[in-house]
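hey can u run this one w/ zinc ion bound, need the structure tokens asap thx
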Amino acid sequence: MKSAEKILKQIKNKGFSHLKVELEAQLWRGRCETVRERTPCTVRGCNNGRISCPACRSKGYILLPRVENSATMKSKLDDLPEFATTRRICARCVGEGSILHPTCGGRGYTEKVTGNYGSENFCRDWILEHVSEKARKALSFCKFYYDGSVDSEMTFTLPVEDGKYIVEFIQAFKDLSEATGQGIDVAGAGMHIAVLVDGCGGKYPVTGASLDNGKLNNFANEVAKLLPAMYLLASSGKQSRKLYYREAQISNQKYSAIHVLNGALEFRLFETCYDRPTAVIEFLGVIDKALEFYADPSKKVEKQDVTFPIFEGKTTRRFVRTSDQIRVIRKQFALIKPEGLTIKEIETTRNVKITIAEVKKKESLQVKELKKLFKEHISSFELAVDGPLTRAEEGRLQNLRAQARLTGGHYSDKQLKAMAMGLRVPELDEKKYIENNKPAIVGRISKRLAV
Ligand SMILES: [Zn+2]
Ligand SMILES: [Zn+2]
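ok here u go:
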């Protein structure tokens, strides 16, 4: 693939000075304990939290004063064990010779609370400490906060030419999730990357500068036709969220694949890439290709006049399940795929097959299967309407025939007979039957895109 530097330079040349990135994930920071720092006890004489007993000077016993040789005293002493006649166990250290060091509480270290993962500023600082100085210094803005859909979001802005550092921030965000020990959940999380127009000064929302309307129109019209391929490229692995918060449109409505704002284009379609942070360079490559339609308003996408079905599911496979989908995607790659990123690489990273021949083979098997089903469907129908009708059914059939004559309906007499019997009206046309039942075999369709 093209180097990050080249891609970023191209984005900059198209009239954009800054990038704004939003990293999101559920980190369960609320479950985390406070962060404590331990320092070994450095007080002299403290040995793993114990110090020499000051009462017995480490001996563990105290010598008794000399015993008088009186008869009464002697007989009492005779009852005691031998050593007690000369020594007494030290009451302070119970014979141990050492006691707990009061300063460190016997732990051998002192501890203080240095932070709290529940704190947003602490998390922001943690991330900033875990990226390079260059990356840190590149930032124009950085904020870590609790977000509605997930508990952790970090938004930061940096000059386009420093976009390569985004990789470091993604890695640090992932590392933070490991430091908390609570793991990371990206269900429903995305990664939004916005390009901010020249003259914004790195400030977001942009107020002092705006997009060129003519260029914007061309961008919105043309890039919208490339969304199928873009959705596939927007994944870093095989995961691909539903399109609810990234609808297949380019508009000033927030939940669009590309949200048009004052002086900014926010690409909301990208997935998180914590498992493969360098995927963000591919995303920037897609953004650069898309912006070609902004920089050059005469650049057009040839209209393909096909509908692109997007099947339900949570993986990238739903974009390449049929030969029609693959045909569209492959054509769109020519315009939107980052330069140098190979189809092989996309197949490996996104866990998909983008080969028409293979899918075609599968599809012809499906048609064969459907033809068989159609035959069964017809013969069971024939069987069902074969028998004599009851008086009531006969009456209904007469009515239906009369209605059919009046309305010029195109049901066959056999279909009317089925209706009279209260059966579901069967499809008698093989082609239509196959067309209608194909989605059930391929998977349910939730959305279609005209491209
Ligand atoms: Zn100590
Ligand atoms: Zn003692």
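Residues 356-386 form the longest helix (31 residues). anyway lmk if its weird
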